[in-house]
Amino acid sequence: MTPPVTLVALLHGPDQRGLVARVAGWIFSRQGNILHADQHRDKEAGVFFQRVEWEPALSRAAKGASRAAVVESEASAFTAFACGELQMQVRMADSAHRKRVAIFVSKADHCFHDLVLRWRAGDFTAEIVAVISNHANLADVTQGYNLPFYHIPVTAATKVDAEKRQLAILRESGAELVVLARYMQVLSADFLDAFAQPVINIHHSFLPAFAGGKPYHQAHARGVKLIGATAHYVTRVLDEGPIIHQGVAQVTHRHGVDDLIRYGRDLEKQVLAQAVRWHLENRVLVYGNKTVVFD
Amino acid sequence: MTPPVTLVALLHGPDQRGLVARVAGWIFSRQGNILHADQHRDKEAGVFFQRVEWEPALSRAAKGASRAAVVESEASAFTAFACGELQMQVRMADSAHRKRVAIFVSKADHCFHDLVLRWRAGDFTAEIVAVISNHANLADVTQGYNLPFYHIPVTAATKVDAEKRQLAILRESGAELVVLARYMQVLSADFLDAFAQPVINIHHSFLPAFAGGKPYHQAHARGVKLIGATAHYVTRVLDEGPIIHQGVAQVTHRHGVDDLIRYGRDLEKQVLAQAVRWHLENRVLVYGNKTVVFD
Amino acid sequence: MTPPVTLVALLHGPDQRGLVARVAGWIFSRQGNILHADQHRDKEAGVFFQRVEWEPALSRAAKGASRAAVVESEASAFTAFACGELQMQVRMADSAHRKRVAIFVSKADHCFHDLVLRWRAGDFTAEIVAVISNHANLADVTQGYNLPFYHIPVTAATKVDAEKRQLAILRESGAELVVLARYMQVLSADFLDAFAQPVINIHHSFLPAFAGGKPYHQAHARGVKLIGATAHYVTRVLDEGPIIHQGVAQVTHRHGVDDLIRYGRDLEKQVLAQAVRWHLENRVLVYGNKTVVFD
Amino acid sequence: MTPPVTLVALLHGPDQRGLVARVAGWIFSRQGNILHADQHRDKEAGVFFQRVEWEPALSRAAKGASRAAVVESEASAFTAFACGELQMQVRMADSAHRKRVAIFVSKADHCFHDLVLRWRAGDFTAEIVAVISNHANLADVTQGYNLPFYHIPVTAATKVDAEKRQLAILRESGAELVVLARYMQVLSADFLDAFAQPVINIHHSFLPAFAGGKPYHQAHARGVKLIGATAHYVTRVLDEGPIIHQGVAQVTHRHGVDDLIRYGRDLEKQVLAQAVRWHLENRVLVYGNKTVVFD
Q: Distance between CA atoms of D171 and D149, rounded to whole angstroms?
């Protein structure tokens, strides 16, 4: 069965009177049906944000038109309206589109298994198109999941080449999102520029505390009573990208570093999975170094 | 300074295409400015819910008109539109209106102090117009807060009379909301009918577990590892009204009944305060035996 | 490398002066070294509970003796002391013993994968000796984990026979614990009597609310703002056994039954895994219908 | 009624075999009764920590002796034993002793009211002996609570003098603990040296993130999805002292700085109250820059 055509628009721009009405009115005037609409105003910055999801009437009318043509035409029309009349920036998505996702992983496999199992349970509207690792240890299990595995070792000396190979795989597989599922390598600015698509990372700490390496060791040394995990978009500055989601767990003096790492694994899994899900559902709008999450 | 005129409408009714656009369009066509709009669909029941808050243009235009007249006229016009054209049920409120609240309390005073202190800190858009207790112990402290205190003892024999006196006070003080801040008496159906305004209760358990009396003793006897608190609207059926908010805390075998009660006090305070705040901000819409909370 | 010999004793019985000292003194007098000791008093019931873990000196002294012989002899000696002199009930365990665990599962596989992956990550001191399901769908993946899978369909007509086959497998595999990882069948009293070892279940609700079937549907119908999961030992009375652990998550009117089920899966995984871990580490002491968890 | 004599000892020192038994044995040999005993080993550092609470037999035997004399004599004897034979550091306390507490506060009054109301509800084994503020706004309400209020303004120019006056009040009132209930002034090293007793502060952030001023503004600017509060002992280095307790709350893009501040107030109240309670119950042992909390 063809899924019904529903579109999502993520809009933002200078606040002005009547934006909600004008967006809703545009959709209604074309006999579309709004399924969800959520908006936010950053009063200090004077910025208006909106996520609106609707079913265009075209999907019923133009029986002859292909699904793709309907989406294409409605999306262009709305983009023209939003950028032109409303002077807003807009990102459009087809709700039914299954984004193509590449997972980068190192030796630690808990986030990897968690993402794949959730995906197989139907939690993510996505295709996993590549699993890329700098270690070989997950090759068999990845193939057990019927997913393509690419072993690309990375050393200081080979990093430039390794990233080229990674980019080639991303290009060939049509990846639209990279998820760093505890991938312990820093991606270069060149890589990020060349990929030019979102990259989500899970940092095993509640940023901005304990940025950098070995955060559980840092947390233990400081004697904190809480540990956290942070999912964020990757930018050129390590651990400084827009935060999508954070979680925490209470700890005590009884917990050694090993316990923090073990509890942390649960946090990392949940926080990363939630952030990925929101991204795939087109619920996350980045502006400046922050996110608006329409959950 | 006169506060700006902003109105809130809480709407619900059968779902139909274009509701978001028609509501927004109506407001926009009168040069109003939507500040917040949030909606929800219960797909199973086919019901549409919306909370919309806007600044009517009248507040700028009709310089001569009183604030009250502007609110009155816009509210009537919108109600006519919503009930008539849209066939929706609607409840209108003036955002700046400080609801008149009566607090009912027994001996336990933690929720009482908590509500009053939050109110004094400016957390609630409300006036506390009466504190009514079946015990005298809070008379002095209530007067210390400059609030009117009414001591109305209640026994099985005097209950009918006591409720009459309570109703008289509510009527005279113009109360629009009763908050049962650990008031340990059950209100009769007659009382609820006569008051005919919302009553919020805090039940010291996560309903529906441990309804009825002495929930912490029940919880301890069952050996649960969590305790909770539930804020709900009061209906004729004890502890069965629509739930507004719930909270929980982890407990262990080390916690005796006294500890559960002590931890419970914190939960009760927070859960009740949050529910009252949402109610006062016109964020809670009741339908059937449930609530939609536009938070 | 042989693991060091460490023993755990779980004691309980009538409270009396000097119990802590007498237990510690007995161990010390035999040159043992206490690694952990934790105790609890139920003042109302007058019951004393203790978990003590120690390294017997014998492990250093009797070089000739086998590990098993050392454990055996120290455990018997302590049991004689605790039951005789102290008049306490005692359960002894070798800390290094990897308990033999059978997992029962139906179609829903999230708890199953979660347990197996945690076990492979080294979180559980255990061997998984059998995976038993009334459906065949997990046969391949279980074999992919190199674990023995037994498909035993269960219908009302075949239940008695099916339980006999299950018991035979448990006996042959030497299972010391059964974990019901969302196994949707009720075990008969006969089965429980015959197995005579602990059985841990995950109930997808915060008991005692929503006992019985389809708890997420019940929760949704009641309009609760929290959902929970409860891990408990199985007794003859459905959903009434001693609670080991409970977890909750906040939900809103936006969450349909499907969302509750999805959020619930995360809760179920974590709550069950934590309960199983505590059990395997000999941290759970059952008395009456409650547990003392020495965490 | 004279409360029963119970003593608490907080011990720590190099780990050695038999410590649990020797402490328990010492108490038992004098016919004392251990009520609670909890211990912890920092394996890396090789340090043993213990909190033991017991009822000395003397309290029953020496009918003639005053309560104070009994406590004094048992405490000295235990200290001699612990420091001498065991080579441990020890801090002794009389469980029934109501510590004398001074509260320092600035304009924000939520933690102040919270502490006083909990104290009046019997949650704290303490006497509040002084309320000291650099502002006069809480004078009346403090007197309403029948507590002594001292208004000591602080400017850069008068700080040295102001601290002298504060110290004089602490000395006269016999304060054994200072609680900084959102006191917005930094205490000088000289003050801390001269007072030479514990000072507990509530920092409105989960340290080490957002140390320093205006943490809610910092958090908002960074776009975090969690805010926190940290109760810690005050040391010479601002916001770097041993952490006693931390709490967090989830926030979203919808929360402006004002909302963070409002939610933060709840966190601050709870986290500070819990830390103060643990301290008053002699449950907190500081070592290095960390705490062991025997909860």
A: 15
